[in-house]
Amino acid sequence: xxxxxxxxxxxxxxxxxxxxxxxxxxxxxxxxxxxxxxxxxxxxxxxxxxxxxxxxxxxxxxxxxxxxxxxxxxxxxxxxxxxxxxxxxxxxxxxxxxxxxxxxxxxxxxxxxxxxxxxxxxxxxxxxxxxxxxxxxxxxxxxxxxxxxxxxxxxxxxxxxxxxxxxxxxxxxxxxxxxxxxxxxxxxxxxxxxxxxxxxxxxxxxxxxxxxxxxxxxxxxxxxxxxxxxxxxxxxxxxxxxxxxxxxxxxxxxxxxxxxxxxxxxxxxxxxxxxxxxxxxxxxxxxxxxxxxxxxxxxxxxxxxxxxxxxxxxxxxxxxxxxxxxxxxxxxxxxxxxxxxxxxxxxxxxxxxxxxxxxxxxxxxxxxxxxxxxxxxxxxxxxxxxxxxxxxxxxxxxxxxxxxxxxxxxxxxxxxxxxxxxxxxxxxxxxxxxxxxxxxxxxxxxxxxxxxxxxxxxxxxxxxxxxxxxxxxxxxxxxxxxxxxxxxxxxxxxxxxxxxxxxxxxxxxxxxxxxxxxxxxxxxxxxxxxxxxxxxxxxxxxxxxxxxxxxxxxxxxxxxxxxxxxxxxxxxxxxxxxxxxxxxxxxxxxxxxxxxxxxxxxxxxxxxxxxxxxxxxxxxxxxx
Length: 624
Description:
membrane; two-stranded antiparallel sheet; 22 helices; SusD_RagB_dom; 12 strands; mainly alpha; cell outer membrane; signal; RagB/SusD family nutrient uptake outer membrane protein; Serine Threonine Protein Phosphatase 5, Tetratricopeptide repeat; two-stranded antiparallel ribbon
């Protein structure tokens, strides 16, 4: 039994060889040393270290898409969706990043391969010092990033700075979880050391786009430090008694306000550096005349995601190409279904209600917007024609909303610019009631809520009756400048209160979104006109601004957790429209799709039960 336990731990913590490098050694001789006999082979091992990054085109690998409340689904086979339905467990956890099972990536396997690379790279004879330093920096960043993915999911985790030798005894491989502050410190120090030898920018864009730069390192550092300062990790009273088997506390007992100051500094450093390299908020330059300002603003928003390598994107991953993701997000716009338009990624009614009114305040706050009549039917007029099909009957919820609502969401009667029609005088529009083009055709491939995440669909994709849908792929943007602006505003407000730079960076986001500044919007249109002047009020505004701007980009799931707001938000019904109905009066009846529940234990992933048996030094996360 002791031998079995030891073998299991060796496999987990890096004492066996990864199968990923087998395709890079010559003559099928599977030895690690052969992977480092020359530069070309070592470079392939470098790319193996990149290969573990989650593939966002596969909605099973990242829980942020389906494991929360942002979008809903109809089939129980989706592992993240089982988390959203409250089925997470300790026997075989869904989307397990520790072991790499149930659609998860194996972060410890990734870290093991990074450590192998760092141990062996000095032995490559035909590699110059400059390139070796750069490669080492890239892999150190990746090692830090894989540790971060584990920390974000599990909280305190074992740090694997080096692979243990094969000769290690049974006790040596039984590693312990480290306190979260130690994990954050280790990760940030590793990123700092990597940043010194990373290039400022990619010079050879044809072959090196997507590789780690100093700007990427600084941006991810800022994201991680914002998390370190947030309530989940910073003095969380729910984990005050969470200790390891030696009695060591794994979470800090009290919140440290200095963490927000450090996060603000990191955000500003990243912003300044990235802007110096040419980063800026994206604005579309149409190649045709006569388009309305309404359409152009919406395309500013959509293309910030889907136009590959645009100047707002700090880190895009060419190994995570949004292709199938667009099949899942595209609404069928023609009567006969294009075969591979699957339309299964369905935003919830909660998301539709999240967006502001056209005055830039929440629908519950706008004193000029009739919240009580939001589910009543209205008919679009000529004044609405660039957002809603003129003469089409839909609900009040879809009228007088901000441009991001119309840019991000497809809905019954909503205009869908592009997809082969580039004159906004005669665009496509969604027809979603039963029997219409976008409705359910059979038992699968339909929006269960009546909404589609249009934001994720490249407007250049063309739809044709009976012909396969050809999506124009784009590398998934892991982080963009807008997130840094929002993170900086949040960290500043938490550390200093509502100072001028908080409004400045929020308002740059809002200006691109086509809505008034925070001050003008709230002072003129909000019921609580002075809310934006206080730290607590501005915190609420910043949170909603972030949830809107980064909707459907894999951030909401984690933000609700780090803010400790998931208990409030995710203990509510998942709702959509009655998509089985043919008439508007029946279609626009709110349907409860699922009564979602969220418990305190759900903030962190469970460690697989077998790991706890194999390594008695591990402790399980609270509640599991």
